[in-house]
Amino acid sequence: MPVLELSGISKHFGAIQALNDVSLELEAGGVVGLMGDNGAGKSTLVKIMAGNFRPSHGTIRIDNREVHFHKPIEARDNGIEVVYQDLALCNNLTAAANVFLGREIRKGFGPISILDYAAMYKRAGELFKELKSETRPRDLVKQMSGGQRQAVAIARTRLSDAKIVLMDEPTAAISVRQVAEVLNLIHRLKDQGIAVVLISHRMPDVFAVCDRLVVLRRGTKVADKRVADSSPEEVTGLITGAIERA
After folding, report:
1. Domain ABC transporter, which positions (predicted)?
2. DSSP category for residue 80
3. What domains appear along the chain, each with residue ranges and CATH number?
4. How confident is the model at residue 81 (pLDDT cuts 50, 70, 90)?
């Protein structure tokens, strides 16, 4: 049974058709690469899964149960977490503070409660250890590499025991060594049975870490196949329109 199933998803903004009858299935522990040119509909599809947009048509099912998201918190409550391209981190805070941002652990003394920093440092350290990251809970984000920042953003998704993680261009604008670190983090999520959607323009990353790839062109799905059955040349043809469908 798919952990997430999108059926006939369409989305229009006035006269603009952003998505047209797109269907997609995600399995637990599977990594799907979502590819396409700018304006192909990738971000719109992810925002529908994340609860930012409501589809104009189509259905969303989680664990074979139909769901309707009106806001992002409802998607999160159903096990969907998002790692956005800008990561949404606070540079002046520690790794642990960013992991728990908006979900801080508190301890009470009668009517008074204060932040439980010790508990947050401990839990953040456990999450970084699970992800096999060298990131330390007390390190300031502004002093971190791109790969370490990704580890903080991904650790944040683990607080809510997510079933699905949507990642938007996680390897954009970082070094080769840091790219390898981020791909290892995706492998860690996969090993923990989490379904991952990886939006990327980087062909080597998709072929290195994904099980399946989905290609969108002008809001329509033109390919949905196993990575082992495709090639970078075919994907390039699908993105540009040189190949109609695969």
Report:
1. 4-243
2. E
3. 4-240 (3.40.50.300)
4. very high
* Helix spans in the chain (H): 42-49, 72-77, 95-99, 117-130, 146-157, 176-191, 203-209, 232-240
Q: What is the C-alpha to C-alpha distance for residues 35 and 215, in angstroms, rounded to an integer?
A: 5
In angstroms, the CA 100 to CA 121 distance is: 10
Kind of pairing between the strands at 195-199 and 31-35: parallel
| Single pTM value for the model | 0.87
Cβ proximity of 189 and 154 under 8 Å? yes
DSSP 60: E
Q: Is 87 left (phi over 0), alpha (psi -120 to 50) or beta?
A: left
Q: What is the chain's length? A: 246
What is the C-alpha separation between 225 and 71, in angstroms, rounded?
Answer: 31
Residues 6+ apart with CB under 8 A from 105: 115, 116, 119, 120, 123
- Phi and psi torsions of 92, nearest 5°: -85, 0
What are the CA-CA distances from residue 215 to residues 2, 96, 149, 201 (Å)?
19, 36, 28, 11
Q: How far apart are CA 38 and CA 206, in angstroms?
A: 17
- Which pLDDT tens digit goes with each residue over 212-244? 999 999 999 999 999 999 999 999 999 999 999
